[in-house]
Amino acid sequence: MGEMIKRSFAPVFQEQGTYIYGSAFVTVTSVKVTPDLAQAKVYLSIFNADDKAAVLQKIVNHTHVLKQALAARIKNQVRRIPSVFFYFDETIDEMFKVDAMFKNIKTMYPPSVQEEE
């Protein structure tokens, strides 16, 4: 169910996104659905935006419109459309921070310097 919602939200954000949050690039990274299928937590990655929190707030403010667009896509596959909650997925940002730390370590300790054992 989560994967179906994830695949169905991608075109919804492509179609509705520019009207809601402008030129930011939003992708659905994962969807967690409760066991009773009543709620879906949608995790989003937001790129090309100066204020990611403002973009997420605009998306949250338009949850009803996005849920209607989702319902139009999956209404024939599910009995009940779950309540949708949007969250910011920080895993990609954390990956970039860790990558920058490794690059910093490589510049501090170049490969030509080897420890003696």
What tags apply to this protein structure?
117 residues, alpha+beta, three-stranded mixed beta sheet, elongated
Descriptive notes:
- By secondary structure, this protein is α+β, with helices and mostly antiparallel strands.
- The chain has a single domain (2-90), classed as GMP Synthetase, Chain A, domain 3, CATH 3.30.300.20.
- Helices cover 51% and strands 21% of the residues.
- It has helices at 2-21, 52-61, 63-74, 91-108; strands at 25-33, 39-47, 83-88.
- A hairpin with a 5-residue loop joins strand 1 and strand 2 (39-47).
- Helix 1 (2-21) packs across helix 3.
- The radius of gyration is 19 Å and the shape is elongated.
**Strand count, sense and closure of the main sheet?**
3 strands, mixed
Q: What is the CATH superfamily classification? A: K homology (KH) domain
**Shape by Cα distribution:** elongated
- Report the helical percentage: 40-55%
In N-to-C order, the SSE pattern is: HEEHHEH
> What is the fold-level CATH name, i.e. the topology?
GMP Synthetase, Chain A, domain 3
CATH level 1 name: Alpha Beta
Number of helices: 4
How far is the N terminus from the C terminus? 54 Å
* E-strand count: 3
